[in-house]
Amino acid sequence: MTKNDREEREDPPDDPAAIDLQERKERVLHTRVPDSLDRHIKRRARNLGMSVSTVVRNVLLTTFGLVEDIVSDSTDIALAATGHETGLGRHRGARRTSQAPATEVLAWQEAVLNRNAVCDECNAILPKGSRAALGIREQPGPRAIICAACLAKVAPGPANPKRAR
């Protein structure tokens, strides 16, 4: 085993920002699961119109960020309850980068989805055929998509135009 082989096999840093969502998926992860969980995952993937692999990958990526957020929030609550300064700046600055920040989006283009998706803002499931908005960026970045309700928060629709008087 060469030095390069050992370096490749070392675990990646335990930094959530180190997860590159655009990285080519070359590794395969095998695990044993009960038949009931296997059926549940396959049924969920079929309902979402996604592959089982994509559903499992998305669940794993989301779960790590969610657990980190829960731990961070719990720590802040405990610190606030005991009268100590919370670590909001420290924890919130290290948020997951898997979500596309709305500040990086130049404009939103409404569209009818041809595939199932998930809203980047509220995590609503967006089924194929539903209306959503795609983010347009000046610089390359992750895909940004929001549901109609979140788009309405950004800009009122034709029924509620803001008029300058």
Give the biggest beta sheet.
3 strands, antiparallel
Tell me the series of helices and strands, N- to C-terminal: HHHHEEEEEH
Spans of at least 5 consecutive residues whose pLDDT stays below 50 are: 89-100
Oligomer: single chain
Shape: globular
Helical stretch count? 5
Radius of gyration: 20 Å
In terms of DSSP E residues, the strand content is 5-15%
Helix fraction by DSSP (H/I, runs of at least 4): 25-40%
Number of self-contained structural domains = 2
Structural class: alpha+beta
Span between termini: 74 Å
Strand order in the largest sheet: 1-4-5
Short structural description:
The chain is α+β, with helices and mostly antiparallel strands and about 160 residues long. Helix content is about 40%, strand content about 10%. About 5% of the residues have low confidence.
